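Quick one, probably user error.
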């Protein structure tokens, strides 16, 4: 079995051939943790979760690295403005790492709910400052960078004379010169399209470190090059991320790697496309910015209802990862019904009993699903093949078809493989029951709170004591209560 992937660099499908089979190195750009995870975070996480699962199914030993950006991501995602995490920390008057940990915990919780497997390594940019300084020094020593007023910039124009800067995104240096000429000479850069490797920190900047050039912080693009090289080597197999990172972020990564090591680090570049909402790009200014928690609870004005994490996952998998996905309540409601139909069919399959003969053919299902998945992760075709099989399962449930023992066992194994192991879809029954369980405990503690307010100490103490015996810890707060199990 051979996996084909669409390589953004060559703009064509290629048979995946790892550098050091059966070992595979995969790097995916992770979140910048200064706000709640949203729908835009879900798509790359789910896309590369499918790739991770597929590679492991094919027998590869995968080192999956997904970074955490917790420093150097400036407000305009380039070289000016305040660090987004530092800005959040300043507004809330807390430590930047408190901001990071709070939103990272929420990101992990959302990813777990979506069925996204954790990566092999999850390095933080703030934990790899030394590696980034060393990486900059190599670029500097090789003549591709220059220092200006304590900051270090990559010399794009010089680089472009020997290499194609823009080969990943299809841009060229002449286009960049034409569109940015009026800005030349701004600040301390030679050209406005030169990007920062190291920025000298202003006195009010919270996050900063010592370096040979200044007290400052690394540029946003640098962390992926430095950490990818540290954990996967100077050359590795796959680099993934959203289409929005194609330029300038991934383009800068290519230039940095060549500048430091003399060679490009990545063999296969994979990019998932964007998610729009009712045909528009998601943004806070448009009032259509929806966090994952808001999807899960329904707590957003444009949501008609709450949607389970598995509904969100199924919605994303129904489209090919390289196509644009447009969210609407109608689309998610259709996905909810589709997921319910798929999982109900899977549940019926588990209950079927074998017969002496099979009246329908199912032996080709596994190979059809494999063929679709290995064709650049075509999850919509996999799902359509499973739905075709559900027609036969429903017929068998109604007594209009039969499967012999061998066919039934193969069908059950195929559904488990693709529904659970590769697509990562789980029954939503547990989600529903867990939510009901939490609401029941909250209701009981609300009754206890009312009893306390009425000075009904007997009832209040009885509820707390009984919950303690069941393993609950209840803490009274100024706003009500908190509990844990």
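Nope, works fine. Designed sequence:
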């Amino acid at each position: 079995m051979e996996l084909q992937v669409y390589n953004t660099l060559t703009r064509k499908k290629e048979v995946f051939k790892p550098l050091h089979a059966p070992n595979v190195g995969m790097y995916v750009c992770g979140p910048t943790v200064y706000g709640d995870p949203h729908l835009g975070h879900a798509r790359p996480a789910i896309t590369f979760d499918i790739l991770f699962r597929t590679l492991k199914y094919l027998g590869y030993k995968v080192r999956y690295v997904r970074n955490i950006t917790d420093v150097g991501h400036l407000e305009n995602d380039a070289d000016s403005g305040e660090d987004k995490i530092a800005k959040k920390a300043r507004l809330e008057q807390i430590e930047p790492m408190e901001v990071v940990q709070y939103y990272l915990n929420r990101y992990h919780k959302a990813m777990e709910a979506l069925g996204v497997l954790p990566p092999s390594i999850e390095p933080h940019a703030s934990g790899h400052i030394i590696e980034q300084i060393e990486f900059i020094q190599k670029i500097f020593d090789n003549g591709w960078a220059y220092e200006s007023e304590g900051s270090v910039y990559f010399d794009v124009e010089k680089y472009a004379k020997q290499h194609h800067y823009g080969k990943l995104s299809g841009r060229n240096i002449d286009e960049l010169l034409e569109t940015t000429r009026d800005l030349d000479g701004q600040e301390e850069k030679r050209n406005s399209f030169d990007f920062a490797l190291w920025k000298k920190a202003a006195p009010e900047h919270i996050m900063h470190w010592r370096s040979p050039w200044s007290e400052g912080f690394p540029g946003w693009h640098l962390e992926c090059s430095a950490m990818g090289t540290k954990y996967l080597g100077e050359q590795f197999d796959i680099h993934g991320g959203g289409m929005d990172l194609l330029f300038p972020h991934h383009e800068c990564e290519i230039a940095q790697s060549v500048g430091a090591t003399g060679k490009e680090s990545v063999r296969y570049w994979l990019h998932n496309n964007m998610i729009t909402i009712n045909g528009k790009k998601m943004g806070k200014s448009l009032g259509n910015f929806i966090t994952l928690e808001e999807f899960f609870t329904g707590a957003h004005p444009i949501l008609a209802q709450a949607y389970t994490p598995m509904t969100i996952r199924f919605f994303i998998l129904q489209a090919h990862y390289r196509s644009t996905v447009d969210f609407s309540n109608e689309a998610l409601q259709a996905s909810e019904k589709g997921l319910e139909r798929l999982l109900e069919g899977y549940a019926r399959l588990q209950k079927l009993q074998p017969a002496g003969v099979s009246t329908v053919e199912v032996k080709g299902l596994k190979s059809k699903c494999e063929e679709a998945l290995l064709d650049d992760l075509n999850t919509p075709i996999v799902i359509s093949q499973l739905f075709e099989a559900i027609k036969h399962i429903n017929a068998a449930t109604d007594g209009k078809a039969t499967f012999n023992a061998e066919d039934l066992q193969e069908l059950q194994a195929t559904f488990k493989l693709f529904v659970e192991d590769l697509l990562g879809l789980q029954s939503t029954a547990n989600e529903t029951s867990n939510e009901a369980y939490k609401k029941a405990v909250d209701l009981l503690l609300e009754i206890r709170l009312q009893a306390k307010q009425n000075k009904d100490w007997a009832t209040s103490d009885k509820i707390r004591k009984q919950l303690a015996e069941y393993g609950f810890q209840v803490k009274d707060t100024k706003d009500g209560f908190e509990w844990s199990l």
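Confidence is low (pLDDT under 50) at residues 181-185.
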